[in-house]
Write a structure and sequence with these properties.
The complex is a heterodimer of chains A (438) and B (260).
Chain A lengths: L17 H19 L8 H12 L17 H4 L4 E2 L7 H4 L8 E6 L2 E2 L13 E5 L5 H7 L9 H8 L5 E5 L9 E7 L5 E3 L2 E6 L4 E10 L6 E10 L4 E9 L5 E10 L4 E8 L4 E10 L5 E10 L4 E9 L6 E10 L4 E10 L7 E10 L5 E10 L5 E9 L3 H8 L5 H17 L5 H9 L2
Parallel strand pairs in A: 1-7, 2-6, 5-8, 6-9, 7-10, 8-10, 9-11, 10-12, 11-13, 12-14, 13-15, 14-16, 15-17, 16-18, 17-19, 18-20, 19-21
Antiparallel strand pairs in A: 2-3, 4-5
Helix pairs in contact in A: 1-2, 2-6, 7-8
Chain B lengths: L7 E12 L2 E12 L3 E5 L6 H9 L4 E10 L2 E2 L5 H6 L2 E4 L6 E5 H15 L7 H12 L12 E2 L5 H15 L3 E5 L7 H14 L5 E5 L13 E6 L2 E6 L1 H10 L2 H10 L1
Parallel strand pairs in B: 3-10, 3-11, 6-9, 9-10
Antiparallel strand pairs in B: 1-2, 1-4, 4-5, 7-8, 11-12
Helix pairs in contact in B: 5-6
The chains are: A alpha/beta (438), B alpha/beta (260).
Chain lengths: 438, 260
């Protein structure tokens, strides 16, 4: 974006630093890349134009922004990105990521890949597909309509939105079969990839969704993903989110969840990949007696940076939230956790619990953790805690004294630490493959 | 049956050890032969638990002098896992909880690491299940314990019984029980003691470290040692434990002070 400055106030304006100029130019470049991939005519144009304006009004974040204090995006600025392209991927290439007994929806570099998808047979009142399977009314009601849509990276995604994974369970429909949304990245040059999905559960319906970000190589790219999730009255969604991008990639992901009265939402987010990752997880409880359970596991090594920023906004009486976020950090890696919980005056008799536990495996490993509870209501129960520890000599000694060598003992203890989160993943095969990556 | 020709399992000579640069063991001497049950008693801070951890090889305990010979080899040269595979077993006062690792898997890994060390083939899951089933009876544990995570959510008594179950499976040559009786109700104590008695054979040896005489009503030791200030200051038969129960430790400590 350009800044018009009249000569009259030129001498009083603050000089724009070259770093700030570089960030502004980069954001402009990202916006152009995002817009370059969209289809020419589309009913989504108004939504995209609106989002593009939101992007233009903002700046690319720096560590001077409180929300990005510990997560430095400078390395991304040095990456010359191109627009994502469609890429032919063989079924063999993704075979090891295929989960048995699921319906599978595959996107490659953000583009729908029906030839890799396997939807199976579904009840008529369940819709699984890309945006072409959604009605105009569904799109108008839900797509891009979550709170927080104006946040710069979410708006960037929307500005380039031309397709998305779409899951819609009609009223009273209980779907037992998990739906696997597989977002594949494969790039021969650094590109901007913007995966998107929209998941809607109508009243009393129930869904299990696995959102899985994978890479077929170790290339550099920037994934900027958005998942919008809507739960109507008494609906239930079990959401597993796996981020296993390339170790050279950048990943910024948004999960925005709106929960109506008596709905139940569980998110188990596991992050292994990317040289720098950020998960923005925003929960909006909009009705009474809603339940939110957030389980998180971030595993970092080398020079990785892994950031989780969550916010839970309670708004009505009798809401509950339970959050356990764990970090396992090795080498010189850096973990960040910021957990906000808002309890306004109207949210009486609510119960919010938050725990962040970190295991540091090396003296150079680092974590910055910040619970942030803003409580206005006076008759509520809110707890939070943060622990940072290392593998204890006594624990290792116990295992060694049973004949287990020191290296296996270490692995076993790391596994035991992660188990509380990994055990929440509803699919045995996925649980096992993630465990083997520890 | 202990005879003069029984094999010497453990021989400790003038052992000294530090914790955080503070001397705790100040010249331990002890000889244990096959078939023997030894009890070490003593007031808090006398170095009993330190002695057990030094024998098992805890890295925080620094040996500063003396010798420990186990079945003819220098025990102090071995890593803790090598000691375990060679037949040294320490039942912990505070066993570790390991979420996500089933008791059965844990037992099998430990058992097979010992088999491998002895040059034997590892036991597969089926054969191992049979083996464990027999051992459960010794500690009166239900088979459902095997599928639970190691010690997670176990009561104090269940944890101690689980230690004895591990001991039963691993069939150690030298079993060291570190205050296994502390915090046990009488029923759990009987089960634990009964298990230990069943596991005692003419080929192995037991070293029982305890603060209370109560355990020794159920496990009858051949020797009772009193430890104070990092050394054994008196050794007797099982009647010494009774005397300690009645008169406390002061008289032994005073006698020791006079003698030196």
């Amino acid at each position: 974006m350009s800044i018009q400055v009249s000569p009259a106030n030129l001498e009083f304006s603050k000089p724009v630093s070259s770093a700030a100029q570089a960030r502004a130019a980069y954001l402009t470049k990202l916006l152009h890349l995002a817009q370059s991939t969209v289809a020419e005519t589309s009913e989504l144009q108004a939504l995209r134009d609106h989002a593009a304006l939101r992007v233009q009004e903002q700046t690319f974040p720096s560590t001077r922004d409180e929300e990005w204090r510990f997560t430095d995006l400078s390395d991304l600025l040095a990456v010359e990105l191109a627009a994502a392209e469609r890429s032919a991927v063989t079924p063999d290439a993704i075979a090891r990521f295929v989960l048995p007994d699921t319906a599978r929806l595959v996107f490659v570099n953000g583009f729908y890949a029906p030839e890799l998808s396997d939807l199976g047979t579904f009840p008529a009142r369940l819709t699984v597909g890309n945006l072409s399977s959604a009605s105009d009314q569904q799109l108008q009601t839900y797509l891009g309509q979550q709170s927080g849509a104006e946040e710069v990276f979410t708006a960037l995604n929307t500005a380039g939105l031309s397709d998305a994974g779409f899951v819609f369970a009609a009223k009273n429909l209980v779907v037992d079969r998990p739906i696997h949304l597989l977002f594949v990245s494969t790039a021969s040059q650094p590109v901007l990839i913007q995966p998107r999905c929209l998941v809607v559960a109508e009243p009393n319906s129930s869904l299990t969704v696995i959102e899985d970000h994978i890479s077929l190589g170790e290339s550099v790219y920037f994934t900027n993903s958005v998942a919008e999730i809507w739960l109507a009255d008494n609906a239930q969604i079990t959401h597993t989110r796996i981020q296993r991008d390339s170790q050279s990639a950048f990943h910024i992901g948004k999960t925005a969840v709106s929960q109506a009265r008596s709905s139940r939402y569980t998110c188990t987010a596991v992050s292994f990949g990317a040289r720098l990752s950020r998960h923005n997880l925003n929960i909006y409880q909009t009705g009474e007696q809603t339940e939110t359970a957030l389980n998180g596991l971030t595993v970092l090594k080398g020079e990785q940076v892994g950031d989780t920023h969550s916010s839970i906004a309670l708004s009505k009486p009798y809401g509950t939230s339970r959050q356990v976020h764990k970090c396992i950090i090795d080498d010189r890696a850096h973990g960040i956790f910021n957990g906000k919980v808002f309890v306004p005056k109207a949210a009486q008799l609510t119960d919010a619990g938050q725990l962040n536990r970190t295991l540091l495996l090396s003296p150079k490993a680092r974590v910055d953790t910040k619970p942030q509870l803003e409580i206005v209501a006076d008759n509520v129960k809110c707890t939070h805690g943060a622990t940072v520890g290392q593998l204890e000599t006594d624990e290792l000694f116990y295992l060694q004294s049973r004949g287990i060598d020191a290296s296996s003992a270490r692995k076993l203890l790391v596994y035991a630490f992660a188990y509380e989160i990994l055990s929440q993943i509803p699919l045995e095969s996925l649980r096992q493959s993630l465990t083997s990556q520890l | 049956m202990i005879t003069e020709t029984s094999e010497t399992i453990l021989s400790v000579k003038d052992l000294t050890a530090n914790v955080d640069n503070t001397p705790i063991l100040k010249g331990m001497n002890l000889e244990i032969k096959a078939g023997e049950i030894h009890a070490i008693m003593g007031p808090n801070g006398s170095g009993k638990s330190t002695f057990s951890k030094v024998l098992a090889g805890h890295p925080d305990y620094e040996v500063t002098g003396g010798e420990v010979t186990y079945l003819g080899q220098n025990l102090l040269e071995l890593d803790p896992e090598e000691r375990a595979r060679s037949g040294v077993f320490l039942a912990f006062q505070y066993p570790l909880e390991i979420p996500g690792v089933s008791n059965l898997d844990f037992l099998r890994v430990a058992y097979n690491s010992k088999r491998k060390h002895a040059g034997l083939e590892e036991l597969d899951a089926f054969d191992f299940d049979d083996l464990v089933e027999q051992k459960l009876e010794i500690v009166k544990m239900d088979a459902s314990f095997l599928n639970r995570s190691v010690n997670e959510g176990f009561s104090g008594g269940e944890k101690k019984r689980n230690e004895i179950l591990q001991m039963a499976v691993l069939e150690p040559k030298l079993a060291i029980l570190d205050e296994t009786d502390s915090g046990l109700d009488i029923d759990a104590l009987r089960i634990v003691a009964n298990g230990v008695n069943q596991l005692s054979t003419p080929d192995n040896a037991m070293l029982i470290i305890t603060h209370y005489q109560r355990l020794l009503e159920y496990i009858v030791p051949d020797y009772v040692h009193v430890m104070a200030n990092g050394r054994i200051i008196r050794t007797g038969g099982k009647e010494l434990a009774l005397e300690l129960e009645e008169r406390g430790y002061d008289w032994v400590l005073e006698a020791e002070a006079v003698a030196s």
